Backbone:
């Protein structure tokens, strides 16, 4: 129990019963807050790691695990989050109290950290917990094997033409894939994205971050985007290549993670044109210029006829 100082209230239920068995060392957390002051929100960050040696501790060099589902429960309040690409799950804006942290173990893995874990938030604390998993040798884990293919709607295109690209991806084998990424690197010198198909255009790439899960049984999935060929393409033939890459931290078979496609754009020199030193075409004469040239040629023809007639008479 405690003697509360004046102007403070208890945020932990007291008195607290503590049982000591065989020389145990027990630590308890007891919270107070000032009267009339709203408590700051706290947070819990779960760091999920691949416990390669199974010792329950996050040792140097042990990789982080994305795509693992966690929950934080306090009474009837249940919060959920999934570890991101950095192996972190986040529970934010938490009121003071005791939260129970638990996870949904992926197939083929076992926990090396004792779960569930109780976490106490007092006056806006930010608490980080590390939770380890390791592969169950009795139930071998098979990582997902992602594959991608890419195809343009045309083989040859003209300047200014709209081109549709289709990305087809799937999980070929292994466990379900979550939190994976597809990046399409297009040639921004010659293409302008018209519709990114739900992706985000960043520095000459389109990025899709996909939460999944993607199971083998789901079969092929598609993403479609459209791009327009520049109207001012270089004179001659230009090959425009694009490369798409699918990635997942646990996918070790990289042979089928990349696909490319090429379209050919022809921009021929127009007939009866010349090209300037700057590389720009001189277009054929049109309009009033053509009329003027026609009159000059007609005048020259009449003059030639008159001269021949005068020569015969002389």
Residues:
């Amino acid at each position: 129990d405690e003697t509360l100082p004046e102007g403070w209230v208890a945020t932990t239920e007291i008195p607290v019963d503590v049982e000591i068995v065989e020389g145990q060392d027990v630590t308890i957390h007891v919270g107070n807050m000032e009267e009339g002051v709203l408590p700051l929100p706290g947070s819990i960050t779960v760091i999920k790691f691949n416990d390669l040696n199974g010792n329950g501790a996050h040792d140097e060099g042990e990789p982080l695990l994305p795509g693992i589902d966690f929950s934080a429960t306090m009474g009837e309040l249940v919060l959920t989050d999934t570890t991101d690409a950095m192996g972190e799950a986040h529970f934010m804006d938490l009121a003071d109290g005791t939260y129970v942290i638990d996870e949904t173990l992926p197939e083929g893995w076992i926990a090396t950290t004792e779960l569930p874990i109780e976490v106490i938030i007092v006056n806006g604390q930010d608490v980080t917990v590390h939770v380890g998993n390791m592969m169950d040798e009795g139930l071998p884990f098979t990582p997902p094997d992602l594959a991608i293919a890419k195809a343009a709607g045309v083989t040859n295109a003209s300047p200014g033409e709209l081109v549709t690209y289709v990305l087809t991806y799937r999980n070929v084998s292994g466990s379900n894939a979550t939190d994976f990424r597809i990046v399409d690197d297009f040639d921004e010198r010659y293409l302008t994205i018209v519709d990114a198909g739900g992706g985000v255009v960043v520095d000459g790439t389109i990025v899709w971050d996909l939460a999944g899960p993607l199971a083998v049984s789901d079969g092929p999935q598609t993403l479609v985007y459209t791009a327009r060929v520049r109207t001012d393409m270089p004179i001659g033939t230009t090959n425009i290549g694009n490369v798409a890459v699918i990635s997942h931290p646990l996918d070790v078979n990289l042979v089928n993670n990349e696909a490319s496609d090429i379209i050919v754009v022809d921009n021929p020199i127009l007939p009866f044109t010349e090209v300037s030193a700057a590389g720009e075409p001189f277009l054929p004469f049109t309009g009033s210029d053509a009329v003027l040239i026609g009159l000059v040629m007609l005048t020259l023809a009449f003059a030639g006829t008159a001269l021949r007639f005068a020569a015969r008479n002389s």
User: Anything to note?
Assistant: The helical segments are 288-313. Confidence is low (pLDDT under 50) at residues 282-287. The longest strand covers residues 162-173.
